[in-house]
Design brief:
198 residues, alpha/beta, 2 domains, three-stranded parallel beta sheet, 9 helices, 5 strands
Length: 198
C-alpha cells in the first residue's frame, strides 16, 4: 500500500554514501531486495566481515523513519480498500515494518480503521513474516481456504505458502516483475488489477 520503493533507494544511498560505496537506483533495488534483508545488503556490496550488519541496518532505519511521512500511498490504495470493504471482506495487515511504526504509519495515512488486525515485526531487522502470519491466522480465526495474501515480494509468496493460503503479487513495489513471476503466475502491475482475480 505504501509507495516507498524509491524512498528506500534514497535512504539506502545515504548509508552507502557514508561508506563511499556504489549507489543504487530503483532497478538495482528491485533486482536485489530480498528477505532476510541482510542478504540484500550483501548483494549491493556490504561486507559484514568489516562491520556488523546492525550498524548500516540501523542507519537505514533511522533515515527511513526520519521522513516516512514523505512516502505516499499508491494512488489506488484507498479505492481498493473501499472495494474490499464494500464486498464485505475482512482486511488485515501483515508487515515487515516494526509494529509501533506500522500502527503510526497506517494512522497517519488515514487507513488504520480499514483493518481488523495488524501485525508488524518485533524489531527492525525484517527476518521473516511467516511466524507472524501463522499467528495472525490463529488470532483472527481465519480459514486458509478463504484467505488471500496480497504482497509485492517473493517472500510474501513464501509466507503465503507457509500459511497455506493463496497469494497475488503486485510488481510496482519492492521487486521486479521478472522476479515475482519466478514465484507465481499471479502477478499484477498495480492494485486495481487484483479485481480480475476476484
Amino acid at each position: 500500500m505504501l509507495n516507498d520503493a524509491q524512498y528506500c533507494v534514497t535512504c539506502m544511498n545515504k548509508v552507502l554514501t557514508k561508506r563511499d560505496m556504489r549507489l543504487i537506483d530503483i532497478s538495482d533495488y528491485r533486482a536485489h531486495f530480498t528477505f532476510p534483508v541482510k542478504d540484500y545488503y550483501e548483494a549491493i556490496g556490504f561486507n559484514f566481515k568489516l562491520e556488523d550488519f546492525e550498524v548500516p541496518a540501523m542507519e537505514f532505519i533511522n533515515e527511513y523513519y526520519g521522513n516516512i511521512k514523505d512516502a505516499q500511498l499508491h494512488s489506488c490504495t484507498i479505492e481498493m480498500l473501499d472495494f474490499f470493504k464494500k464486498l464485505g471482506y475482512n482486511q488485515f495487515v501483515l508487515s515487515a515494518m516494526e509494529h509501533k511504526n506500522l500502527i503510526n504509519t497506517l494512522t497517519e495515512k488515514g487507513i488504520f480503521t480499514y483493518f481488523k488486525n495488524i501485525k508488524g515485526i518485533d524489531d527492525h531487522y525484517a527476518h521473516s513474516k511467516l511466524e507472524m502470519g501463522i499467528r495472525l491466522l490463529a488470532d483472527s480465526k481465519l480459514e486458509p481456504e478463504t484467505t488471500i495474501m496480497i504482497g509485492d515480494t517473493t517472500h510474501d509468496k513464501e509466507v503465503a505458502d507457509g500459511m497455506g493460503i493463496e497469494c497475488i503479487l503486485v510488481s510496482n513495489g519492492h521487486q521486479s516483475d521478472e522476479r515475482l513471476l519466478t514465484a507465481t503466475p499471479n502477478v499484477v502491475s498495480n492494485l486495481l488489477e487484483i479485481k480480475k482475480f476476484l
